[in-house]
## 1
Amino acid sequence: MSILIKNGRILTASEDYVADIYIEGETIHSIGIDLNTQADQTIDASGKVVFPGGIDPHVHLDMPFMGTFSSDTHETGTLAALHGGTTMVIDFILQTQGKSLHHALETWQGRSNGNCYGDYSFHIAVTDFNEETKKEVIQMIEEEGITSFKTFMAYKGALMIDDGQMVALMQEVKKRGGMVTVHATNGDVIDGLIAKHRKEGKLSPLYHYLSQPEFTESEASGRFVDMAFYTDVPAYIVHMTCEGALNQVRNATKRNQKVFVETCIQYLILDASLYEQNPEGAKWVMSPPLREKKDQKALWAGLNQGLIQIVATDHCPFKWEQKMMGKDDFSKTPNGHPAIENRMELLWSEGVEKGNISANKYVEVTSTNPAKIFGMYPQKGCIAVGSDADIVIFDPNEAHKLSVDTHHMNVDYSAYEGWEVKGKCKTVILRGQVAIDNGEVKIEKGYGQFVKRCKISKVI
Ligand code: URP
Ligand code: ZN
Ligand code: ZN
């Protein structure tokens, strides 16, 4: 199978030019002006932007959490991702406390194997670091190609590890060439504030927000950064929301420490005023919570300063009935919101179209940096000869509205209902196959492949 994409405006993290792309099999064969190679299929991309398929390194598919499961499976989630221009995701495996990492891996493989439309990889969350888990770190890296280890500084009793375990894990991961990533919030303080609010009968979604003040995130981010400095492990903070946490990373750069930072689309464009709605505010109950306008400003600046390298989603959808598990008590609302399908279009529209980031920065933070930081570059994350032909053909002029009526995520509301975006993913190619064309699905379930990743120590 071969495809010739003609006359598109090719965007990478560093280039912007008009040319043709010739794809043979799963990879890009050649790029040039006026290529006249014969192909099985020719796509006219005149007037369109052509960029590498999005990589969303933070999604939770079919994940057991807070007494229920996130509502997108590996099938529905990766398909919705493709509709929105994301050709690869990195999903989170959660170790059950008292059980092994391998047990968790096998459970997630049972859910994902043969079920994905889009390509995928896993991070593994270490929730119980002990002598047995320690032996598994090297196996995850060397045998499974799972090179990033997620930690939680909150969700005590289910996911949280203490600082002693954190440092011990960091030392082992450093030795084996991996990376430690973190949900950085102070779980003990948050649990105390939740208990206080519940005791006072303050149970609406607003109190979810008020139980996680900014300092709980900045304090934990700073603590994590210090532990990473001490152990010299490659470190990555997921879903950063606020100015205070960003300043902890800014301080670390003063001692020449490099910490990678991810924010998510919602923290750039939504704010905490949504929590005043009851019960609708439950749609945005996530951790950490949405913040203030001044934090949005800091995050956009952080992207442009290079302090934040990635915009992900933390896609963790729940249907309204699931969200209503917390109708009488915010602390029972499953945390998370749906965005896997919306990230690429929202960030183009709110970022590039509105002049908050450049088009090259857009490619960098949605695709190239995730591929580089997580050990998949240049197989993924770029438009270059020899790379996987994961390509989005995007119409920057097509305006449309996001809605539950048109999205493909398995959730019965949109967190962005009625939001007007300028720019639409028209054709999405995954490893040389047209996967989505004008909203039509052209591949079968199971086309998506597991991507083994390189040791992080080799790439950064
Ligand atoms: O609210 C969130 N973020 N839910 C998913 C789990 C996590 O903390 O990332
Ligand atoms: Zn988290
Ligand atoms: Zn998450």
## 2
Amino acid sequence: MYFGADYYPEHWPRERWEADAQMMQAAHINVVRLAEFAWSKLEPTEGHYDFAWLDEAIDILNQHGIQVIIGTPTATPPKWLIDKYPDILPVDADGHVRGFGSRCHYCATNKNYHWHSDLIVGQLAKHYGHHPGVIGWQTDNEFGCHSTTRCYCDSCRKAFRQWLQQKYGTLEALNEAWGTVFWSQTYETWDQVIIPRKTVASHNPSLLLDFYRFSSDMKVEFQARQLRILRQHSTNQFITHNLMGLFPEIDYYDLAKDLDFVSWDNYPRYSGAPDSTRLALSHDLMRGIRKQNFWVMEEQSGPSGWEIVHSTPRPGEIRLWTYQAVSRGADGIVYFRWRTCRFGTEEYWHGIIDHDGRPRRRYREIQETGKELAELWPFLDGTEVKNDVAILYSYDQLWSLQIQPNNPSLQYTEIVKEYYKRLHELNIGVDLVNHTDEFTDYKILIAPLLYLMTPELALRLTKFVESGGILVTTFRSGVKNWDNVVTDKTLPGELSELIGVEIEEYDSIYGETPIGISMELQGYKVEGTASTWCDVIIPGTADTLAKYTTEYYAGQTAITQNSLGKGKAIYVGTRLDANLTARLMDHVLTLAGVARGPLAETGIEVSIRGKAGMRLLFLLNHSGKKQTVDLTQHYVDPLTDVPITGRLELPAYGVEVLREV
Ligand code: GAL
Ligand code: ZN
């Protein structure tokens, strides 16, 4: 197993490197990522490269059995480069330049930047592409961090026009697709087309959605330049990028398409207790992006902080987060950062060891975790996470709903998470999938807020249901086409036949008073509340599962279930409270014959990794209190084969790994 730290030798005197490497080795660290911000050390002046210091650092690490991942340093263009080509700096929506002095200060479409990024990446690739102690590369660092996905500079304006020209072919097609006749926005020449800088009021939603897509594509293309160069000059080295979990600005399915695997940066604890559901969802998305195991390239190892210091990881928490990542598919864990830096913006973003360089509690915890994982690796190696339930997570849906939330409290990822939460409580594994994926491997597909719809997607969803799948979708589905224009069909538009209903009208819910709702599932009744949005549904071929009990639409249908072929399509016309969501999900699980997971509803998170003939269960206590659970199956300790049955006590933040027998 790869177990490591993010290391910045350039922040410490040369004499310290040996001691660092020794301490790392003693902590079972076998990999470090380095150099991702070191451009000014690697190319101090234009065209003068100095890799000697990095060679030396890598040598010392390699001598201690530690392999290296090099980050391309393009998130921090140096001062000489910015002074020479100030147009590299990104521009915000107000038209103001975002200046030098922090990081990510570059525009991804700038030709001067392309040229210099290609040069530094090429030099590094030639120098280290065959180095036996360098196992891989990280492109840039957290593309889009600090709201840098969308740039509004002149170069981007030009690139946007080109992108649109490629997409639409003719201006007539663009005018038609966007509905520019509205408010006299019709374009007559390509160079009239605007980039969505600040205006008096809101922009055309179709233009905005295309701009979000374009901006994401520009990061993907910028990365592609690096991938081409790195692949050209390297052998047997992987390429990854450190993604940011639920970061909403880049289509991660696109960004990761040509990587060897996904990695991501996981910082669970800021001001308060971490949200284990959100963490699990993030891991599952990161696995779903390429349907493959992943790495954590930055795992929190101390209190985080720039100007403010956030709370310190509780004893056991770093180990717990590590196991949570592993349990959901991580094959590599790299802690951020080795030693807490004494200077610069991140002085208080603590690492494994403190400013004074001495190992303490957090070092010992990581050391212990590294030892355990090394022992466990022969069992873990080659295992995967396999699930019957999928949740559709689409950046096009996310963006279109960011542009028009429809209701102030509607947030795409939050609503996805509400459905995910019940599955998480029940320890039922979930895969996150894209709208372009095949759904047929799954028994259940939860697809909230299918705001944008195409006939093709509607057909794929229909086929999924016809062949026996259970689909759950919600209000604000089938509303618009892929150009972000409202359908002229009766809602739910393209989905009408599949869902078997008509939406007669809808009510966007404001204020504190929730709407009453009564649900009847398999003979028993539950009362609860709904909020955010209420579709008033006329069931056609579908059966009614719930009705509103208040407002002028009391007695009218809120949730339906339609049978089609061997499967069923459930439509939830409103946002349910947590209890109703849970009851509805229980119903869905029963329909699909998906069993509750081990230790469901005990508060202990369980995730399973398996391979032929073996399944490993990870039991995680995310709470600060000890918890006792009763095992209903027989398990053994994977390392010793000692049977583990019956009552099991998990200390605060405790972890158990069991092998099924
Ligand atoms: C990450 C980033 C690191 C470091 C860390 C702490 O977002 O990749 O370079 O900045 O956060 O702020
Ligand atoms: Zn730009």
